[in-house]
Protein: Acetylglutamate kinase
Amino acid sequence: MSLDATINKASVLIEALPYLQSFRGHTFLIKMGGSAMEDPDLVRKVMRDIVFLEVAGVNPVVVHGGGKAISAAMKEAGLEANFIGGFRVTTPEAIDIVQHTLSGKINPGLVDMLTEFGGKAKGLPGSEVFVGRRIQATNEDGDNVDIGRVGEAVGCQLDEIRNCIYSETVPVISPLAAEEESGKPLNVNADLAAACLAKELKVTKLVYLSDVPGILADRDDPSTLIPSINQPKAEELIEDGTIAGGMLPKIDSALDALSHGVGKVHFIDGRTPHSLLLEIFTRSGIGTEIVQ
Ligand SMILES: Nc1ncnc2c1ncn2[C@@H]1O[C@H](COP(=O)(O)OP(=O)(O)O)[C@@H](O)[C@H]1O
Ligand SMILES: CC(=O)N[C@@H](CCC(=O)OP(=O)(O)O)C(=O)O
Structure:
């Protein structure tokens, strides 16, 4: 390699300098979607980027999903996975599987990967962080229906998370909540759990890692990525059906988070190596940023 080419490599670090300076000591909430967790080698790469962020002075807090893994575990147990209004119908048998898959398997797996790269990480079951209230879902006829042990996070216990941040440890949190009255576990949509915690922590950034490059004008064409959208544009895209399915809870919670003190929200593809670092430390970014 020529000397010029070697010198050019440093330009990457120099491009990152203003970002490194302005994000030092700031907290970022990273939501790792289940759809970006199908290939363990790619997940490992994201965890390495999170360790990098922590070493660079950012405080990453991770909330993970695992919808696909839960559906697979339910199938193995002979249970059918049903969703109403985007929420999983969670029977008493299903909540055990949800809990086991999220807090017993995915969560320790992510902690192990972070540790593997020399990071400090601590798994926290969502039921020790989120206080929840049961919710109903709205079916296609517009009726409210009981969907079992499903809840929304109405509050967060931040002590353990603050201890982690203070001790340079990455908290890794599963999307479950302890029901307000009974303390029993509730299944919470991970996008909504992430946004609730992002609001409480007033994070500088909330980053959703999923299986698409960002918000697309045409869902089947990655070249139609929309690099930046604001609230009126997001509402227009929801109205005309461009934003649908699993993207709806993300955009709803993104807008909610922005109006409650979160600095900026980003949607990126968790399967693209280094998407997290590229979005945060480069001028052009790689996904969609949501601004107010
Ligand atoms: N306009 C859009 N742009 C990109 N993805 C969209 C859009 N509308 C709907 N989606 C869907 O949202 C999905 C991501 O949501 P979801 O499957 O719930 O992911 P996760 O497990 O990361 O939460 C994408 O795979 C895509 O099919
Ligand atoms: C109530 C509800 O639907 N909970 C979700 C929790 C996991 C999740 O949200 O995972 P993703 O981020 O991968 O979608 C579920 O059971 O699938």
Observations:
- The domain at 24-291 is CATH 3.40.1160.10 (Carbamate kinase).
- The radius of gyration is 19 Å.
- Residues 215 and 247 are 8 Å apart (CA to CA).
